[in-house]
Amino acid sequence: MAKGEIFMSIGPTKFALQELKMKMPDGREITLWFDGSGKVTRDNGTFDEPVANAFSLVQVVDCPFATPTCRSICYVHILEANEREVHDKYILNSRTIRVILSNSLYIMATANAFAKYVNENCRGGFRWHVSGDIFSWIYACFIRLICLETPNVRHWIYTRSYDYVAPLVGLPNLVVNLSADKDNLSRAIVTAYRFGLRICYLTVDGLVPDDLPAGSVIFPNHSLRGRELPRPTDAPWWQSITPEQRRMVCPADFFGQSPNIRCGPCRKCLK
């Protein structure tokens, strides 16, 4: 465990928080927070002792291209209600990153400290945004800068901010996944083919488009999952989709998370 790291849990999910205190060129002290969970720790910590290997913001507020569908069922609403300490750090990050991005000297000082943390603590992988999204072009460029400064770390991101993905395309150590649902699928498909990116599709009503590109990943809403059944695959929704679509389903979302079913052992979104 890194110095100052905090562990907590919501039900079976374990969370980690780690602060990054930085002194700016003008002497001002600024703090950002990294977070992580047993699901997204990837190849850093373990399911029961995750490493803070993600940087997150606020749901919806920091998601300029959020759709009606994703706003209505965003999983971060549950986290906000049940674990205020984690969500409060997202709020602090949301405010602080905007201060940083408004000052070129702050950007460089932060990038150096941010990259140092990632290189030292997240060699197994780094996720952008358990909560939140790319909210501006300059923020996309900041993400690019961190990836360039951490060339030996594999990064991954899910985004609905298609207008801001161009700076992130072509980085050898960043996997860009386009988050989509029925409200923005047409734009997602155009963007996916333009840049050669993967689509991660959220279904709430159980319907799955026939034209999802090869390599897409399907994320079913809670009501469609088979976690409570003795045999999850007996769930009506699972039985209704094709064998090809079943192979696209996120295992951690549908079957539940465990040491063997989480980001890391699963590579659907990570390659």
Mind explaining what this structure looks like?
This protein has 271 residues and is of the alpha/beta class. It has one domain (6-255). The protein has 9 helices and 9 strands. Helix 2 crosses helix 3 (84-101) and helix 4 packs across helix 5 (137-149). The radius of gyration is 18 Å and the shape is globular.
Task: Briefly characterize the structure.
This protein is an alpha/beta fold and about 270 residues long. The chain has one domain (about 5-255).
What's the layout of helices and strands?
Blueprint: E1 6-10, E2 13-23, E3 29-37, E4 54-55, H1 68-73, H2 76-82, H3 84-101, H4 104-121, E5 126-128, H5 137-149, E6 155-159, E7 174-180, H6 185-195, E8 198-203, E9 217-220, H7 236-240, H8 243-248, H9 251-255
Parallel strand pairs: 4-5, 5-6, 6-7, 7-8, 8-9
Antiparallel strand pairs: 1-2, 2-3
Helix pairs in contact: 2-3, 4-5
